[in-house]
Specification:
single chain; 210 residues; 10 helices; mainly alpha; Tetracycline Repressor, domain 2
């Protein structure tokens, strides 16, 4: 599966060939088909594994950080770190996010994506409820933030001279400047050492990279 994900990340789904996969692994193509049935099912399993890791990480981040502002900063930082921690998975998942999206084979993936989104929406709702965020539609705010973050693979290069903390900090400031209620900035949270340590610790503990 790791080799399959890497091929999809590098070549796209259509450019990924099970024969090439088998040759690289020095096994027969029949062995792959026996275990996974078809290429679309391999993609579905790869996406499901990826989202299981991301959902578990997100829940731990949301639980470990104190305020909605800190949680939001942690989520943004995580989306940047995905490009380092699991670059192939992030690229393979996002570049093929709409592939078979409505097919039965992707039912579990749709559920995990909805669960992930729901958790982020709840963070925004909490910020609106405690007065630290403006009165916004939490679903729209969450969708806008994640759309930008999850497509980071198209513009962010992991070996960029800028460290991930620097990139994430700018994104945090961008998002929070739009969400924060200027009359109530207590406990809004920034990408400080505490938030960064929590996010890195969660990603290392869950072990969903590579």
């Amino acid at each position: 599966m790791k080799t399959f994900v890497r091929h999809v990340a590098e070549r796209g789904y259509d450019g990924t060939n099970l024969g090439d996969l088998a040759a690289e692994l020095e096994i027969s193509k029949g062995t792959i088909v026996h275990h996974f049935t078809s290429k679309d099912r391999m993609l579905a399993e790869a996406h499901e594994r990826y989202m299981h890791y991301r959902v578990n990480e997100l829940k731990l981040i949301a639980t470990a950080l104190r305020t909605p502002g800190e949680r939001l900063a942690g989520i943004v930082y995580a989306t940047v770190l995905y490009q380092h921690h699991d670059r192939a998975g992030a690229v393979a998942f996002q570049r093929e996010a709409t592939r078979f999206r409505d097919d039965d084979v992707m039912a579990a993936v749709r559920g995990l994506r909805a669960e992930f989104m729901s958790t982020v929406v709840d963070v925004v709702k909490d910020g609106v409820a405690d007065g630290s965020f403006r009165e916004v539609d939490p679903a729209i705010a969450a969708m806008g933030m994640l759309s930008f973050g999850f497509w980071a693979w198209t513009w962010y290069v992991p070996d960029d001279e800028r460290p991930p903390e620097q990139v994430a900090q700018q994104l945090v400031q961008l998002y929070l400047s739009g969400l924060l209620d200027p009359t109530n900035t207590a406990g809004v949270g920034v990408l400080d050492e505490h938030v960064g340590a929590v996010v890195r610790g969660v990603l290392d503990a869950v072990g969903g990279g590579g």
